[in-house]
Amino acid sequence: MAISSYTAVLFDLDGTLTDPYTGISRTFLHTLSTLGQPLPDEATLRAWIGPPLHHTFRDHLNDEALAAEAVRVYRERYARLGMYENQVYPGIPELLTRLRSAGVTLYVATSKLIGPAQGILDHFALSPFFQGVVGATPDERLSTKSEVIAAVLTMLNPAARSNCVLVGDTTYDIEGARACNIPCIAVSYGYGTLSDLQAAQPLAIAHSVEELGSFLFDTPPTL
Question: Name one Pfam family in it (predicted).
Answer without folding.
Answer: HAD_2
